[in-house]
Amino acid sequence: MTLQECYAALEGDYQGVLGRLTSERMVQKFVLKFLNDSSFDLLVRSMEEENYQEAFRAAHTIKGVCQNLDFTRLYRSSCQLSEALRNGVTPEAPSLLEQVKADYAQTVAAIRAFQESVGA
Amino acid sequence: MERMTDKQKILIVDDSEMNRSILADMLGGEYEILEAENGIEGLAMLRKHAGEISLVLLDIVMPELDGFGMLTEMNRNHWIEDVPVIMISAERGSSHVERAFEMGITDFISRPFDALIVHRRVVNTILLYAKQKKLVALAAEQIYEKERRSSLMIDILSHIVEFRNGESGMHVRHVHTLTETLLTALMRKTDKYGLTSQDISVISTASALHDIGKIAIPEEILNKPGRFTDEEFAIMKTHSMIGAEMLEALPDDYRDEPLVKAAYQICRWHHERWDGRGYPDGLKGDEIPISAQIVALADVYDALTSERVYKPAFSHEKAIEMILKGECGTFNPLVMECLGGCADEILLELGSDTTQRQSQREMQSVARELHKHEELTASERTLELLEHERMKYSFFAAMSEEIQFEFTVQPPMVTLTAWGAEKLGLEEIIMDPASNGRVKELIGEDNWRGLSDALHGTTPGHPVVTFDCLLNYGGSPRWTRIVARATWSSDEPPRYTGAIGKAIDIHDSRLKLDNLERMATHDAMTGLLNHATAKKRVMERLADRPDGKFALVILDLDHFKQANDTYGHMCGDRVLIHLAGKLRQSIRGGDIAARVGGDEFLLFLEYGGELDPIVSRIYSSISGSMFEDFPICLSMGIAPTDVVGTDYDALFHAADQALYKVKRSGRGRYAFYDESMRDMLSVISPIEGSSDAGEESGGEKGESEP
User: Fold this and answer.
1) Selecting from 3.30.1150, 1.20.120, 2.170.15, 1.20.1530, what CATH number does the domain A3-118 have?
2) Do B571 and B624 lie in a common domain?
3) B570 in helix, strand or coil?
4) What parts of chain B have a pLDDT lower than 50?
5) Active-site residue, B692 included
6) Is the terminal CB of chain B with fewer CB neighbours within 10 Å at N or C?
7) Are residues B309 and B203 part of one domain?
8) What is the pLDDT of residues B491-523, one digit of tens each?
9) pLDDT in tens, A39-68
10) Residue A61: its chain B contacts at CB < 8 A?
11) What is the bridge-based pairing of β-strands B634-640 and B550-557?
């Protein structure tokens, strides 16, 4: 799997990120690093504990990282979730969280597949 | 130790590690990157690396303290004036952007980051600030030079006047110092004259010119030994007006200078007096400007304490006394109070090395000048000094193997030396230490509060506290001495801003001390109190509870001498140790047991109801038992306070007499003291007994067989 194919699988904008981060090496480095980011775990945990302030920050961080890496699909759902949590919890937050979970799983699966193919 | 590098430092404050490393990568190897994951940590980094950080990249949404919170704090500390901040965030709301710019940020970059844009903006911003810093340094240099030159000119001018006057040149300096000291005291005392530290600086400098009018007085009069004729005095008196006129004749540009205005007042009116009996205008009270009032007093003081052709020098105390008594004309009562209040300070100030004071004053005025120009808060010169100090500090801190710390109230933070942090098992930087679990565990709530109260209770004049406490580290509590110096702001009134200090392990020496104390108060063989200490404790108890019911008991072992002779001293010692243990077991917590000497012991008991059952219980639990081959048999004499009173010596003597009575009537019993024993002999000091006469007729009342 190439990096470009990985981006296709996670529904991101490969050309966009390449333009901004200037080299494929750098894009690859941070895409792989995404697997170590703990914001998603923090988000899920905070939602379970009904700590919506912390959940907002976690969603906001995921959104920022996705934006920087052009993970368009996960960016979109995490952006919606963070807006839904900005001023405390709203009724649509739980369903948006499910969407983020699904998109996150899709993103991580794509990156894992890529990781295996480069043997990293 | 910190490595010195030439790379400029950039601080990235963002809660996402991913985002920080993307930014760090974008900036490449050109900069040294420092990272912080929230506003509080960001502030700590700024404080730790004050003056070193060339740029801050700041996120908005963060835990603990967000980007706006950090900006607020940077504004409060004026850091925002020296360190450019570029805000980075996905927040595109224009109100956010606007608010951030109002709070002093230099630029705003929105997500997603574009490597080229981030790089370009960072470079531009750093270049811009570097130029500005150079300009600031240049301006500071020039202000310093200007200040130095103008005080030099004033010095030369006033010295010319003095040398013509046959004086040493010290008069002007003394008047300067006195003026400054008195004005500062006056400012503290009252705001009646609206004095600022700026005014004090100007008036003190202008004071050097108070006698310039003397340049126009003929030398024969000026230096005449002996008294002036009326005519000569009239000429002499013109010097004040002449000085004022000289200043008034200056070109318009100068006349409006605060320095020249102050000098005019001082020249013209420094011989006026509060009661209107001075010259040249006969002004009264506060018609005389405060500058002239103060210089007049300074002038008189220095004239009194200097030797003149017509008089010897008076001592400092004599001069103050003469002025306060009104022997040198009348002065403003408020100013006189200041003089009385700062008499010691004056002596100290005038005594200190004048050249040193001179340069010190120059430094102060540069500082004041710098202060006037707020944008000059940190010139390159100060930063270099600061950097040097920091290097020195961290070197010595690393060498010293001491736990050193720094505490700031705002932001609430403790910084430890690397060695100290490792020793205590804490981080080097601890945010909000008061609510940090590990800090609490280490120092304990009571100690924390005690130390905090002690530091708050200091004053800027006496800021050092010494605080001994038990710290829990390395698995067990250790006695530790904390020596700390509170830091106070230079505001009026001063604010408590934190503390610096060190913690010294005094555990071993403290234990040694405890041990010594134990040795001094206890009997080495039995471990019971010694007689002297028991006496002290008994007297304390008696004084504490005058209404309590107590009994003092003296007891000894029957036939102990025989035991020593038969079984040897080693055995005798073991018997005594055994008995001491028994006694210790048989008394209650508040009671006292002591070894008086030899085989004599003392007990001090408090009782509520009947005394006899208590004594009986103690007696029978010990007497009659066996230790090894030696039968333990006791004789006891008891003196209750309700019979004898609460005087220790009387109680001791009475118990002793009761014991004597027991010994005389066959041992192996106990007896309570009663009046019939008054004249009996003593067991412990037999010569004290007056006669044998009453011995046999002593009543048996209160005595019981065990």
Assistant:
1) 1.20.120
2) yes
3) helix
4) 1-4, 353, 355-356, 359-360, 362-378, 686-706
5) no
6) N
7) yes
8) 767 888 889 888 888 888 888 888 888 888 888
9) 999 999 999 998 998 899 999 989 989 988
10) 15-16, 19, 61
11) antiparallel
